[in-house]
Amino acid sequence: MDWFFILEKILLISGVLAISLIVAMYSTWGERKVAGVMQDRIGPNRAGFMGLLQPLADGGKLFFKEEIIPGSSNRFLFILGPSLAMMVACMTSAVIPWGDTLTIAGRTISLQVADINIGILYIFGVVSLGVYGIMLGGWASNNKYSLLASVRAASQIISYELAMGLSLIALLMMTGTLSIKEIVEQQRHSLWNVLYQPLGFLIFLVCSFAECNRTPFDLPEAENELNGGYHLEYSSMKLGFYLFAEYINMFISSALMSSLYFGGYSFPYMDSLGLSPNLTTILGTVALFVKIIFFLFFFMWVRWTIPRFRYDQLMRLGWNIMIPLALANMLITGAIVLYRSTH
Amino acid sequence: MNALISTALAGVVMMFAGLFIRNKQHIKFVAIAALLIVSVANLAELSTIEGGSRTVLGMVTVSHFSILFNAIAFGATLIYFLLSGSAFEKVGEHVADYFALVFFILSGITLASSFSNLLMLFLAIEIISIPQYILAGSNKRTPKSSEASLKYFLMGSFSTGILLMGITLIYGAAGTFNIEELGLGNGDINPLALCGIILLAFALSFKVSAAPFHFWTPDVYDGSPTVFTSFMATVVKAGSFIAFIRIFHGAFTGTNISAHWQLLLSLVTAATLLIGNFTAVFQQSVKRMLAYSSIAQAGFMLFAVISMNKYATQGIILYAAAYSVATIGVFAVTMKLKDYTFDGFNGLARTQPVLAVTTAIFVCSLAGIPLTAGFFAKYFVLTAAVQQGNLLWLVVLAVLCAAISAYYYFRVIIAMYFKQGEPATKEEITGGFKVMLVITAAIVILLGVFPGLLLNLI
Amino acid sequence: MLTVLLILIPLVAGLITFGLKGSGPKALALIASIASLAVTVAALFQFRTAPEALQLTASWIPQLGAQFSVGLDGMGMMLCLLTAISFLLIFIVINNRNYERANSFYGLMLLSQAGLIGVFSAYDALLFYVFWELALIPVYFLCSLWGGEKRIPVTFKFFVYTFAGSLLMLVGLIYIYLQLPDKSFSYAAFTSGVLSPKDQSWLFWLFFVAFAIKMPVFPFHTWQPDTYEQSPTPVTMVLSGIMVKMGLFGVIRWLLPVLPSGAYMWSEVAIVLSIIGIIYASCIAIVQSDFKRLIAYSSIAHIGLMSAAIFANNEQSLQGVLIQLFNHGINIIGLWIIVEIIQQRLKVKNMNELGGIATYAPNIAIFLVIISLANVALPLTNGFIGEFLMFSGLFQYNVWFMAVAGLGIILAAVYTLNMVQKVIFGEANTLTSTTTDLTGNELLALSVIVVIIIAMGVYPKPMLDLVSSTTELVNKVY
Amino acid sequence: MFTDTVLLSATTPFSYFPIVLQLCAALGFVGLTMFATHFLGPKRKTSDKLVTFESGIEQKGNARQPVAIKYFLTAILFVLFDVEVIFFYPYAVNFRELGWDGFLAMLLFVAFFLGGFFYILKKGALKWED
Amino acid sequence: MPVQYYIFLSIVLFCIGVMGVLMRRNAIIIFMCVELMLNAVNLLMVAFSKMWADAGRVDAAGAQIFVFFIMVVAAAEVAVGLAIIVMVYRKSQSVDINIMNRLKN
User: Fold this and answer.
1) Membrane spanning segments where (chain D) (predicted)?
2) How far apart are CA C75 and CA C54, in angstroms?
């Protein structure tokens, strides 16, 4: 047993989890700031410089709030719901390559927690567990609004998961692998996938919004229809978990989109700069985070730009437009790839 | 392959027919036309097969035998559509879907008659089973129907699990799913394989409702809409049997291995015969009687499984045809009556002589009276068992049970001819229906006088 | 060709009859039975000149080696004759009856005739089996539709008994078929003697049970008295006069030649069963007060003697059996005709309510006496020669068997004469004093029977000649 | 029958080990936080506080009533179509080797997929308006 | 890990499923037990596939394809089965299979 390996992985995991949490926290700050800019307001500015300590204040408040579990709820499931949501959010980051390898003291350290050859399937598998968190929470609350919201959320998430899965198939046809690391490496030496798969990316993007319950797909949490949705009865850190999970999911979605379509930790001319490998790796990781932050901003941008869909519009978009489009994209990609490889 | 593809396509066509055709009666005609096309496609393949069989991708082996069996299944279904097709409309709204499901079942049956890979066996069994769960529960007006459906579903999926475990264990022993390459009978017996075979035997006994795995049958058959019971108890059962026979004859024969499961299955056969017959004797409802009699008949068909010779294959072909056609006929008549008990048949001979005569012929065929198809069906499976050699005790048991079966089959005749009563029919008996019944009865008798008509084709 | 015609005439006539109305069925049945008799007589002549011409073999199910093979030997010829005569007599006697749904009645009667002739002429084991079953179905319907009060359970018992028996026989047939090298059902192949004695010893029981139920032999007889009692009398005539002969015929034609060592091995058991049947049936007959049941039990006793004689397996006994097949049929039909006549007039079956008929209907009395005497095998009646030969055959086999069976003769005399005494002599009561004498057609039928009784009693040689070929054949096989 | 696909040349079970580590870490984090907040917050429970919130009016009946069958239908359809999607994955990974034959087979599969899809659309299984 | 561990685990899971089906009365739980059985089979199938691949069979991936088919069929069964259970529940407000004994009469 290689103890250094384990130590290295533990460090990496802690780092990734910590960064996820920090990014999630500052996303809330970012969100309000973006909202402020878009609506010509200032946004949080009291706690610390430019309100930078606001997320800490919010987090602390959630910690010290009274914990309420409604009398008619199912206690076990009530606690399990947010825990599961948070767990799932924490698990998806395991297969995302945060960077290339670092060489420290003769050891080659990969900046990916686990490079498994079915990375994309793993993501799908874990993400689809996320719906349990919402479903359990909504059902366990024994509240009509929560239940309705959770049922809506479940329907929405699973509907868009179909189109999401289909849109990725076209990508797989081009790359021929399910390992995310390999997909990134391929882009390092050629053009970004988004240039070959614009439609696929678009579908994936839309579906990511729906998967994360982000506006314009935030029906499960529609506060003016459902009093806040599936986490209506939650308080304290349990509510915090739901909120955090959502932001972490956004973060991971952004990372995934960057990795699959925008070259991940690679950036143009990275191999021709003549820098040391370690430096290149660090620059790559920075590049990845730049991309992620752009996508996070995009999430917020959309939120304050587009109004919420009606439920039937949402389902129609998912089933009647996204799925056929994704299928068509897949078939066209397949035909072109085959044609080019045989001629 | 033609049959497989065309039935699946026909199913899809029927699904869409329901969307575009408003008139329910036209749907029936579309179904009949589709079935005719399927039959023709099936028979057209006969001439293209040289040297007995053709294997497609190591998954499906199309042979003369399988085509003939398909033809019988399609023929029986055609009779079923013609006799009982109009009863579909009374079950519920989604007539076209019911027809589509029947076509999907048929495609499962064609797969069952031609698989050459355990994967395809599994798929065949499932394609046969799953539409049946739906058909069983298709009458939404009565709780009986949905409960029958639930019961069938739970039992059916349970047996699927067992089937899969059997297949997995066999794979663990043999390293392949291809039936021809399994090679279990040679050399020492692998305990994994033996366990697998036993599990497979159990699961398939479940599917063909052989005792002691039969307990779901009466309830399900009784609860389901009669028109679907009639299909489930006949064509579908024959289809499951063909799968049973193909796998056990094709893969598990061999000097060492067959003795092990043969004893087990003979006991199952004996139990099936005894339970099926003795319980059928005490039934008051014709529908339930037919359910139990289908168990009893399964006992006879099991002979074909355990005897493993050419009579067995011929026998199962004849049995499938004879049993299906006759039972479909009896069910068709039963469905026209208001009262499904034996008393409901009282005096039918006086009011509806055509119905009574044809029913009498069907029932005689089921009892195995000579000059009806049922006689030669029984004859062949008994011959197969006698030739097998060490099953004579079972054969004697079987003929005694056959004599008992005459009791409950003839109760129908007694009720129709020897008792007084005014049987109430649900609807006007049309001339077309009578003509179809007479044609069906003629087929039964024709096969009873000249079984060679079918046997020549094998 | 004539043989096929013999089967076809009643078959086709029967099917046509179903579609007729009014008095059509009656007329057609009569015509068909006359035609049958004529063809039978023609066949009889052909049999004397060119017996091979009665054989016919046609392809039926080549896959199984089953053929449509029919033909008539001496025994078959004789039984066909018996069938033709019996059916004609039955139709004559019931000519003035009007049955409900006459078309079905006469149609089924004719179909059963076709089945019977098929059984007697089949030379292919599978064909034999098919006819064997087919003869049963119409009779089952006849009994169930036109029988007495308890007809449904009773005839059902009859049906299940015989059906179970015949299915056992089917198993035996299949087993033998599979043992044969050329996989054929033909008579020649079946009698080629390839079966090992071990196989024969158990196959014997499969066949014997089937035949024993039909005859019937103790302990397989329990269906018989009930069925005879409940059936309409014309059907009882068919049952007791001809159908029971199917069992005996089966033993002689199929069991003995196909399973000679089996029959040899179990002959004592078979004889003991038969003799128990004789004594048992006779004893019950003595205490019986029901007219029909008495005759039924007497029939069991007679058949028991025949069956015992068959298994005694020597030429004399066999000759006796063969001739008795015919004579017993004639006698018992005669008795049933009388029963039918009395019952139709007085509507009672209990002999204690009868008596003194001789005074009011002397013709009935005369015929009953003659036929009863033939039934107890008085010399110069037809019963005598057969029973004599059978007893001498049994004597050669085992003296004690003969002695016990002989007791049956004495008992037969007791109950038959008792019956005659009770029915026609003694005090007439108010009921019996209304008896009217025979009508024309009854007189005709009974006269024919009496003529046959006396002719056969005085000059049995033609009949003995007719069956000699069969006797020789069977003994050769032994 | 089947060729050796990428599925078989799998990475060793050991490459999944870090995932187990991460699972432990996530479990630990979630558990700890839950545990901590349980003790950190004030606890002043009153019966009114524990009543479920329904926009300020009193709760009527049990919330766990059957919801519209549409949701259920969507779930079922997802299960079916998702499994069909799963079939595309091994195909997509291997589709270069399978070539045009494989593509045609996949077209047939897609045709059936679309057949089912249009069927449910036509049947109105996804109509949310009513 | 040796394949025996997987076989043992799968058999245990399978037996739990079987016992559940035979002993529980709630239709949903029975159904879940059936799914457990199927998943035990899947696990075993993959284990055997690996075993035969290690033993040098080139077509051992077939078992993994089989697993796909099991999943598909299981999905179809889920679709049908849940629909049936919902239908029964809406009729009788219960998914206890004991109440279904009224079918017998």
Assistant:
1) 20-40, 71-91, 103-121
2) 13
Contact present, B341 and B285 (Cβ < 8 Å)? yes
Q: What is the DSSP string of A77-146?
A: HHHHHHHHHHHHHHHGGGG---SSEEEETTEEEESSS---TTHHHHHHHHHHHHHHHHHHHHHHTT-HHH
Q: In order along chain B (458 residues), what is the average pLDDT of each group of 10 residues?
A: 89 88 86 94 84 80 89 93 87 88 94 92 94 90 86 91 93 87 75 89 91 86 89 91 88 77 89 90 87 89 86 87 92 87 84 88 90 88 85 86 87 83 80 91 90 78
The domain segmentation of chain C, as residue ranges, is: 263-478
A-contacting residues of D 18-47, CB under 8 Å?
A: 18-19, 21-23, 25-27, 29-31, 33-34, 36-38, 40-45, 47
Q: With DSSP H G I counted as helix, E B as strand and the rest as coil, what are the percentages for chain D, rounded to 5?
A: 65, 0, 35
pLDDT digits (tens, 9 = 90+) for B148-198: 899 899 999 999 999 999 999 999 888 888 888 887 766 677 888 888 999
Backbone angles phi, psi at B94, to 5 degrees: -90, 65
Q: Do chains A and D touch (3 or more CB pairs under 8 A)?
A: yes
- Find the angle CA(D28)-CA(A88)-CA(A265) to the nearest 5 degrees: 100
Contact E63 B171 (CB under 8 A): yes
Q: On the CB side of A46, how many CA atoms lie within 13 Å of its CA?
A: 4
**Domain edges within chain B:** 2-455
Closest CB to B178 among D1, D115, D122: D1
Beta bridge partners of C70: C56, C122
**CA atoms of A311 and A144, how far apart (whole Å):** 17
What is the set of domains in chain E, with CATH numbers? 3-104 (1.10.287.3510)
Query: What number of other Cβ atoms are within 10 A of residue C421's Cβ?
Result: 12
Numbers of helices and strands, H then E, in chain B: 20, 2
CA C3 – CA C113 distance, rounded (Å): 13
Residue B226 is which amino acid? Answer: T
CA A220/CA A228 separation, integer angstroms:
8
Chain E's closest residue to B118, CA to CA, is E66
State the greatest distance between any 2 C-alpha atoms of chain E, in Å, as a whole number.
58
**A74 φ/ψ sector (left φ>0, alpha ψ -120 to 50, else beta):** beta
> What letter does residue B236 receive in the DSSP assignment?
I
Place of tokens 């029964």: E88
